[in-house]
Amino acid sequence: MSDATSGTAAAEEAEEAEPVWRSRGTDRRSTRTIRVYTSATLIVATVLAVLLVPPAVQLDQQAIDLSAKLLPPSWEHPFGTDDVGRDLLLRCVHGLRVSLLVGVAAALAATVIGTAVGACAGALGGWVDRGVMRLVDTFSSVPHLLLGIFIIAMFRPGVWPVVISVALTHWLSTARIVRAEILSLRSRPYIDAAVSGGASRWRVTVRHLLPGVLPQAALAAVLMIPHAMWHESALSFLGLGLPTHTASLGTLVQSARGSLLAGQWWPTLFPGLFIIVPTLAIAGLAGAWRERLNPRRRSELML
Protein backbone atom coordinates (compact mmCIF):
# COMPACT_ATOMS: atom_id res chain seq x y z
CA MET A 1 0.00 0.00 0.00
CA SER A 2 2.79 2.37 0.84
CA ASP A 3 4.53 1.58 -2.48
CA ALA A 4 1.38 2.45 -4.42
CA THR A 5 0.97 5.69 -2.49
CA SER A 6 4.57 6.69 -3.08
CA GLY A 7 4.26 5.81 -6.78
CA THR A 8 1.16 7.97 -7.11
CA ALA A 9 2.89 10.87 -5.34
CA ALA A 10 5.92 10.58 -7.61
CA ALA A 11 3.70 10.60 -10.69
CA GLU A 12 1.89 13.71 -9.46
CA GLU A 13 5.21 15.44 -8.81
CA ALA A 14 6.41 14.53 -12.32
CA GLU A 15 3.21 15.91 -13.86
CA GLU A 16 3.62 19.14 -11.91
CA ALA A 17 7.31 19.47 -12.86
CA GLU A 18 6.76 18.88 -16.57
CA PRO A 19 5.07 22.25 -17.34
CA VAL A 20 7.86 24.03 -15.42
CA TRP A 21 10.49 22.32 -17.57
CA ARG A 22 8.59 23.18 -20.70
CA SER A 23 8.14 26.79 -19.66
CA ARG A 24 11.83 27.16 -18.97
CA GLY A 25 12.68 25.73 -22.38
CA THR A 26 10.17 28.04 -23.99
CA ASP A 27 11.65 31.02 -22.15
CA ARG A 28 15.13 30.12 -23.38
CA ARG A 29 13.92 29.78 -26.96
CA SER A 30 12.01 33.05 -26.81
CA THR A 31 15.00 34.84 -25.31
CA ARG A 32 17.25 33.50 -28.05
CA THR A 33 14.72 34.49 -30.71
CA ILE A 34 14.53 38.04 -29.34
CA ARG A 35 18.34 38.23 -29.27
CA VAL A 36 18.62 36.99 -32.84
CA TYR A 37 16.01 39.43 -34.18
CA THR A 38 17.50 42.34 -32.25
CA SER A 39 21.02 41.55 -33.44
CA ALA A 40 19.87 41.09 -37.04
CA THR A 41 17.98 44.39 -36.94
CA LEU A 42 21.03 46.25 -35.62
CA ILE A 43 23.27 44.67 -38.27
CA VAL A 44 20.84 45.64 -41.05
CA ALA A 45 20.66 49.18 -39.65
CA THR A 46 24.47 49.33 -39.58
CA VAL A 47 24.76 48.22 -43.20
CA LEU A 48 22.06 50.67 -44.33
CA ALA A 49 23.76 53.51 -42.46
CA VAL A 50 27.09 52.76 -44.12
CA LEU A 51 25.49 52.58 -47.58
CA LEU A 52 22.84 55.31 -47.43
CA VAL A 53 23.99 58.05 -45.05
CA PRO A 54 26.96 59.41 -47.09
CA PRO A 55 24.90 59.90 -50.28
CA ALA A 56 21.92 61.28 -48.33
CA VAL A 57 23.91 63.87 -46.37
CA GLN A 58 25.36 66.28 -48.90
CA LEU A 59 28.38 67.25 -46.84
CA ASP A 60 32.09 66.60 -47.05
CA GLN A 61 33.15 64.65 -43.98
CA GLN A 62 36.62 66.26 -44.20
CA ALA A 63 35.32 69.84 -44.60
CA ILE A 64 36.58 72.08 -41.79
CA ASP A 65 34.34 74.88 -40.52
CA LEU A 66 35.81 76.56 -37.45
CA SER A 67 32.72 78.71 -37.03
CA ALA A 68 30.69 75.53 -36.38
CA LYS A 69 33.09 73.68 -34.09
CA LEU A 70 31.76 71.63 -31.16
CA LEU A 71 28.11 72.29 -31.92
CA PRO A 72 25.75 70.07 -29.89
CA PRO A 73 23.39 67.63 -31.67
CA SER A 74 20.74 69.41 -33.73
CA TRP A 75 18.57 68.87 -36.81
CA GLU A 76 21.36 70.14 -39.04
CA HIS A 77 24.00 68.01 -37.31
CA PRO A 78 22.26 65.06 -35.58
CA PHE A 79 25.48 63.97 -33.85
CA GLY A 80 26.90 67.46 -33.46
CA THR A 81 30.30 68.57 -34.76
CA ASP A 82 33.87 67.93 -33.68
CA ASP A 83 36.58 70.37 -32.60
CA VAL A 84 37.13 71.65 -36.16
CA GLY A 85 33.49 71.81 -37.24
CA ARG A 86 33.20 68.51 -39.12
CA ASP A 87 29.87 66.69 -39.05
CA LEU A 88 30.13 63.81 -36.56
CA LEU A 89 27.41 61.69 -38.17
CA LEU A 90 29.34 61.49 -41.42
CA ARG A 91 32.62 60.97 -39.58
CA CYS A 92 31.16 58.12 -37.53
CA VAL A 93 29.66 56.43 -40.61
CA HIS A 94 32.95 56.65 -42.52
CA GLY A 95 34.78 55.39 -39.44
CA LEU A 96 32.36 52.48 -39.14
CA ARG A 97 32.95 51.68 -42.81
CA VAL A 98 36.71 51.47 -42.19
CA SER A 99 36.23 49.38 -39.04
CA LEU A 100 33.92 46.93 -40.82
CA LEU A 101 36.39 46.63 -43.70
CA VAL A 102 39.24 45.90 -41.31
CA GLY A 103 37.15 43.52 -39.21
CA VAL A 104 35.81 41.43 -42.09
CA ALA A 105 39.10 41.31 -44.02
CA ALA A 106 41.17 40.48 -40.93
CA ALA A 107 38.68 37.85 -39.75
CA LEU A 108 38.69 36.10 -43.14
CA ALA A 109 42.48 36.18 -43.39
CA ALA A 110 42.93 34.92 -39.82
CA THR A 111 40.39 32.14 -40.41
CA VAL A 112 42.19 30.97 -43.55
CA ILE A 113 45.54 30.93 -41.72
CA GLY A 114 44.11 29.25 -38.63
CA THR A 115 42.22 26.63 -40.65
CA ALA A 116 45.30 25.74 -42.69
CA VAL A 117 47.54 25.49 -39.63
CA GLY A 118 44.99 23.56 -37.55
CA ALA A 119 44.22 21.18 -40.41
CA CYS A 120 47.91 20.41 -40.95
CA ALA A 121 48.45 19.80 -37.24
CA GLY A 122 45.38 17.61 -36.82
CA ALA A 123 45.72 15.62 -40.06
CA LEU A 124 49.47 14.97 -39.95
CA GLY A 125 49.80 14.42 -36.20
CA GLY A 126 53.05 13.29 -34.64
CA TRP A 127 55.94 15.73 -34.48
CA VAL A 128 54.16 18.14 -36.86
CA ASP A 129 51.23 18.41 -34.46
CA ARG A 130 53.49 18.89 -31.45
CA GLY A 131 55.63 21.50 -33.20
CA VAL A 132 52.66 23.49 -34.51
CA MET A 133 50.91 23.53 -31.16
CA ARG A 134 54.08 24.65 -29.37
CA LEU A 135 54.26 27.49 -31.90
CA VAL A 136 50.63 28.37 -31.17
CA ASP A 137 51.33 28.33 -27.42
CA THR A 138 54.34 30.60 -27.92
CA PHE A 139 52.35 33.19 -29.86
CA SER A 140 49.47 32.94 -27.36
CA SER A 141 51.80 33.86 -24.50
CA VAL A 142 52.35 37.31 -26.05
CA PRO A 143 49.48 39.83 -25.64
CA HIS A 144 47.66 40.44 -28.92
CA LEU A 145 47.92 44.20 -28.69
CA LEU A 146 51.65 44.16 -27.99
CA LEU A 147 52.31 41.78 -30.86
CA GLY A 148 50.05 43.83 -33.14
CA ILE A 149 51.99 47.00 -32.30
CA PHE A 150 55.26 45.23 -33.15
CA ILE A 151 53.90 44.06 -36.52
CA ILE A 152 52.28 47.34 -37.51
CA ALA A 153 55.46 49.26 -36.65
CA MET A 154 57.09 47.67 -39.70
CA PHE A 155 54.63 49.33 -42.10
CA ARG A 156 53.41 52.81 -42.89
CA PRO A 157 50.04 53.76 -41.35
CA GLY A 158 47.15 52.54 -43.46
CA VAL A 159 44.21 50.15 -43.64
CA TRP A 160 45.99 47.07 -44.95
CA PRO A 161 48.84 47.11 -42.42
CA VAL A 162 46.14 47.06 -39.73
CA VAL A 163 44.44 44.12 -41.48
CA ILE A 164 47.75 42.23 -41.63
CA SER A 165 48.49 43.00 -37.99
CA VAL A 166 45.09 41.83 -36.76
CA ALA A 167 45.10 38.73 -38.97
CA LEU A 168 48.56 37.61 -37.81
CA THR A 169 47.57 37.91 -34.15
CA HIS A 170 44.09 36.32 -34.27
CA TRP A 171 44.51 32.99 -36.07
CA LEU A 172 45.52 31.08 -32.95
CA SER A 173 42.07 30.29 -31.56
CA THR A 174 40.86 29.15 -34.98
CA ALA A 175 43.83 26.82 -35.31
CA ARG A 176 43.04 25.23 -31.95
CA ILE A 177 39.36 24.78 -32.83
CA VAL A 178 40.07 23.27 -36.25
CA ARG A 179 42.72 20.94 -34.85
CA ALA A 180 40.35 19.70 -32.12
CA GLU A 181 37.55 19.12 -34.64
CA ILE A 182 39.86 17.21 -37.01
CA LEU A 183 41.15 15.01 -34.19
CA SER A 184 37.53 14.23 -33.35
CA LEU A 185 36.65 13.48 -36.98
CA ARG A 186 39.66 11.18 -37.43
CA SER A 187 38.04 8.65 -35.08
CA ARG A 188 34.85 8.41 -37.15
CA PRO A 189 34.14 5.09 -38.96
CA TYR A 190 33.87 6.65 -42.42
CA ILE A 191 37.41 8.04 -42.08
CA ASP A 192 38.70 4.55 -41.23
CA ALA A 193 36.78 3.21 -44.23
CA ALA A 194 38.34 5.80 -46.54
CA VAL A 195 41.85 4.99 -45.28
CA SER A 196 41.20 1.24 -45.62
CA GLY A 197 40.01 1.85 -49.17
CA GLY A 198 43.41 3.27 -50.12
CA ALA A 199 42.68 7.00 -49.93
CA SER A 200 45.77 9.12 -49.36
CA ARG A 201 46.13 11.38 -46.35
CA TRP A 202 45.78 14.44 -48.59
CA ARG A 203 42.55 13.12 -50.12
CA VAL A 204 41.10 12.23 -46.73
CA THR A 205 41.92 15.69 -45.41
CA VAL A 206 40.50 17.59 -48.38
CA ARG A 207 37.45 15.41 -49.11
CA HIS A 208 36.38 14.40 -45.60
CA LEU A 209 38.07 16.33 -42.80
CA LEU A 210 37.99 19.92 -44.07
CA PRO A 211 34.27 19.88 -45.02
CA GLY A 212 33.54 18.68 -41.49
CA VAL A 213 35.25 21.67 -39.88
CA LEU A 214 33.96 24.36 -42.23
CA PRO A 215 30.90 25.25 -40.05
CA GLN A 216 33.13 25.75 -37.01
CA ALA A 217 35.65 27.75 -39.06
CA ALA A 218 32.89 29.97 -40.46
CA LEU A 219 31.54 30.56 -36.97
CA ALA A 220 35.04 31.41 -35.75
CA ALA A 221 35.35 33.98 -38.55
CA VAL A 222 32.06 35.67 -37.60
CA LEU A 223 32.98 35.71 -33.91
CA MET A 224 36.35 37.21 -34.81
CA ILE A 225 34.88 40.26 -36.58
CA PRO A 226 33.95 42.15 -33.36
CA HIS A 227 37.34 41.39 -31.83
CA ALA A 228 39.12 42.61 -34.97
CA MET A 229 37.08 45.83 -34.90
CA TRP A 230 37.97 46.42 -31.25
CA HIS A 231 41.62 45.71 -32.02
CA GLU A 232 41.65 48.20 -34.91
CA SER A 233 39.98 50.83 -32.74
CA ALA A 234 42.56 50.28 -30.00
CA LEU A 235 45.47 50.62 -32.44
CA SER A 236 43.97 53.75 -33.99
CA PHE A 237 43.30 55.19 -30.53
CA LEU A 238 46.99 54.72 -29.73
CA GLY A 239 47.92 56.47 -32.99
CA LEU A 240 49.43 53.31 -34.51
CA GLY A 241 46.69 52.19 -36.86
CA LEU A 242 45.33 54.60 -39.42
CA PRO A 243 46.53 58.12 -40.21
CA THR A 244 45.05 60.77 -37.95
CA HIS A 245 43.21 62.48 -40.83
CA THR A 246 41.41 59.24 -41.73
CA ALA A 247 37.93 58.80 -40.25
CA SER A 248 38.28 55.83 -37.92
CA LEU A 249 36.26 55.14 -34.80
CA GLY A 250 39.46 54.82 -32.79
CA THR A 251 40.88 58.09 -34.07
CA LEU A 252 37.55 59.86 -33.45
CA VAL A 253 37.54 58.75 -29.80
CA GLN A 254 41.19 59.69 -29.43
CA SER A 255 40.71 63.18 -30.86
CA ALA A 256 37.67 63.78 -28.63
CA ARG A 257 39.47 63.31 -25.30
CA GLY A 258 40.06 67.03 -24.85
CA SER A 259 36.44 67.86 -25.67
CA LEU A 260 35.21 65.39 -23.06
CA LEU A 261 37.31 67.05 -20.36
CA ALA A 262 35.81 70.41 -21.40
CA GLY A 263 32.25 69.09 -21.00
CA GLN A 264 31.39 68.29 -24.64
CA TRP A 265 30.18 64.67 -24.45
CA TRP A 266 28.94 64.07 -28.01
CA PRO A 267 32.33 63.75 -29.79
CA THR A 268 33.10 60.77 -27.53
CA LEU A 269 29.66 59.22 -27.04
CA PHE A 270 28.62 58.64 -30.65
CA PRO A 271 31.90 57.09 -31.93
CA GLY A 272 31.87 54.89 -28.82
CA LEU A 273 28.34 53.74 -29.58
CA PHE A 274 29.34 53.02 -33.17
CA ILE A 275 32.04 50.72 -31.80
CA ILE A 276 29.91 48.97 -29.18
CA VAL A 277 26.51 48.47 -30.83
CA PRO A 278 27.54 46.79 -34.14
CA THR A 279 30.12 44.56 -32.48
CA LEU A 280 27.64 43.39 -29.83
CA ALA A 281 25.05 42.75 -32.55
CA ILE A 282 27.47 40.60 -34.55
CA ALA A 283 28.57 38.78 -31.40
CA GLY A 284 24.94 38.14 -30.39
CA LEU A 285 24.02 36.71 -33.78
CA ALA A 286 27.12 34.53 -33.84
CA GLY A 287 26.43 33.37 -30.28
CA ALA A 288 22.95 32.18 -31.28
CA TRP A 289 24.50 30.38 -34.26
CA ARG A 290 26.98 28.68 -31.94
CA GLU A 291 24.21 27.56 -29.59
CA ARG A 292 22.42 26.03 -32.57
CA LEU A 293 25.55 24.16 -33.69
CA ASN A 294 26.27 22.90 -30.19
CA PRO A 295 23.28 23.36 -27.85
CA ARG A 296 25.06 21.80 -24.86
CA ARG A 297 27.59 24.60 -24.64
CA ARG A 298 26.78 28.20 -23.85
CA SER A 299 27.88 30.75 -26.42
CA GLU A 300 31.11 32.55 -25.62
CA LEU A 301 33.05 35.26 -27.38
CA MET A 302 36.47 34.21 -28.60
CA LEU A 303 38.51 36.90 -26.91
TrEMBL record:
Tell me the ranges covered by the ABC transmembrane type-1 domain, including all copies: 96-286
Annotated region Disordered: where?
1-26
The species this protein was found in: Streptomyces atroolivaceus
Q: Which residues cross the membrane?
A: 34-53, 98-128, 135-153, 159-178, 209-230, 269-289
- Recall the taxonomic lineage recorded for the source organism: Bacteria, Bacillati, Actinomycetota, Actinomycetes, Kitasatosporales
> Does the record carry Isomerase as a key word?
no
This protein's membrane topology, according to the annotation, is: Multi-pass membrane protein
Its main subcellular localisation, reduced to a broad class, is: membrane
Entry keyword set: Cell membrane, Membrane, Transmembrane, Transmembrane helix, Transport
Keyword check for Ribonucleoprotein? no
Similarity comment: family membership = Belongs to the binding-protein-dependent transport system permease family.
Location in or out of the cell: Cell membrane
> InterPro entries this protein is in?
BP-dependent_transpt_permease, MetI-like, MetI-like_sf
Lineage, top-rank taxon, reads Bacteria
**Name of protein:** ABC transporter permease
